[in-house]
Each structure stands twice: as structure tokens, then as C-alpha cells.
Description:
Elements: E1 2-7, H1 11-22, E2 28-31, H2 58-71, E3 75-77, E4 81-87, E5 90-95, E6 100-108, E7 112-114, E8 130-131, H3 134-137, E9 145-149, H4 153-162, E10 168-172, H5 182-190, E11 194-197, E12 200-208, E13 211-219, E14 225-228, E15 233-235, E16 239-241, E17 276-278, H6 290-309
Parallel strand pairs: 1-2, 1-6, 2-3, 6-17, 8-15, 9-10, 9-15, 10-11
Antiparallel strand pairs: 4-5, 5-6, 7-16, 12-13, 13-14
Amino acid sequence: MIDLAIIGGGPAGLSAGLYATRGGIKDVVLFEKGMPGGQITGSSEIENYPGVKEVLSGLDFMEPWQEQCFRFGLKHEMVEVSTITKEGKIFKIFQNDGKVVEARSVIVTTGGRPKRTGIKGEDEFWGKGVSTCATCDGFFYKNKEVAVLGGGDTALEEAIYLTKMCKKVYVIHRRSEFRAAPITVEHAKKNEKIQFITPATVEEIKGDNGGVNSITIKNIQTNQTTQLDVPGIFIFVGYEVNNNILKQSNGTMLCECDQYGSMIVDLNMRTNIEGLFGAGDIRTKASKQVICAAGDGATAGLEAIAYLDSHK
């Protein structure tokens, strides 16, 4: 029996572990199938985390987090968790190796991942001109032209955001109509810096050692292909939260989730299940920024302390 299980080792999970252990919880275990760090370790440059003036790779940025968090007694189990259940007041953590660990409280910080398109060149130039975060990477394209792929609210909202620093934004969508809210579409169409290319798909992302330098676009109606010279493409074709561990044997979820499968939490990261918290990109309406995930984790860690203190 452990006091607190944290599932997921990204910024939210590590921050939760730091605050929980430093706050007095003696038995805190972080379950992460690989080395802690999370999705951000795949980023090539991070320059917007307050207090860190150097531009660091995601891997270098996350390295000291581990040392700091483990200093206060956080334990790391390098295993993959398959399911979490709750029986009475006790949670059961089922591992892929068959082992079951019991815990008094749980913080889920398993995050999510942007959907990949499978476009030729996408994997090769991921993080080198292919991005899924305008807030993170838009600044690198100041006064340059970029492309945005997608037709939903996120795609158009991010395209509008990119016009604040980019010279021109090409929005590429396979349909002439958009899934985004009508008001969002209207705002995008009124923006002089946005040019729509529809109905079209991106056939290939091209580049060299310096990163992306062009994309090949195919018009769906005419099958004509053209080359668009841009140093970056932002892809917004969906986001998948890593919520498999919440799925129960009867097909339900362990806690309430929104229509996207994200955990519904209050401002204190509490779910509708007592003792269960969600933090970072796994929770509903997450900002998907490192600093926000870290803040979520800190809040969840503090709330776990309060929960355990009230259930001694």
C-alpha cells in the first residue's frame, strides 16, 4: 500500500511528485514506462519558460527536473500501467507485468499527443519546421510565411494567432467548408494575412538539414499539385489524450470525462471520484503548455496532501 501514485512522468507528474513529497507525503511513487520528462523532451527548442533564459532542447530542459524531484523522496517505477480501478477507498494500479499496487490516492498525468497525418516528410521534419503548437513555435517564424493544416476551431484559432507575428498564413483544408464555429471562420476570413487553400491536401513536406523549406499541395478537385515555399507548417488535425488507463472492464471510465475523453476536473484538479486527481494535458481544457502542466501538477500535489490528511 502506498499513499500516492502518480501515473505519468511529464512536467505535471514531476511537479506533483515534488510538491507531494516536499509537503510531507512519505510514500509517493511515480509510474512512468520510460525515463521521466514527457512529450516535451522531443522539442528542439524551449525559450518561453519563465526564469530559464537559455534556449534549451526539451531533453536538456527536463533533465534537472528529475534530480530535483527525486531529491525529496519521490520513487520512480519504470513500468507501464494498464488500468486503474477503485474498490472502496483504495485504488488498484494494474501494471502490464501483472503486478498490482494499491494506493490511497492517485494523480493521473498521462498527457496526450497530437494526431499525426502520415504525410511524407512529417516524421523527418517533426520539430524542425513541423509543429503542432503555434504558441510554442510561432515566434520562430516572425515576418515569415507559414502554412496551417486543418479546418477545426483549433486550426483557425491558431492561424489567427500566427498572424500576429507571421507575414502570411496559408490555411490548407481538404474541404471547402470548415468544422470550426461560424464566428471563428468569419474572423479568419476577415484577416488579411490569412489565405485559404481549399479543397486541398498536403502531399509532402520537404526540406534539408536546416529544416522545412517547402510543401507540396494537391487540389482535390483538379488533382493539380503545386509547391508552396514555407519554412514551417503547423498541423492541427486532432489531439488524442492518453486515457486508456481510465477505461474499466465494463466499458465505462473511472471518472467523468468530456467528449474528447479528457478528465473533467475542478480548479483544484479534483475529479468526481474522491482521491483521484487529473493534471496536465489529460485534463479538460488544458492549455498544453509546460508551465501550465507544472502548475496543474503542483495544485494536484497539494490537494493530494489535503486529501490524505483528512482521511487518516
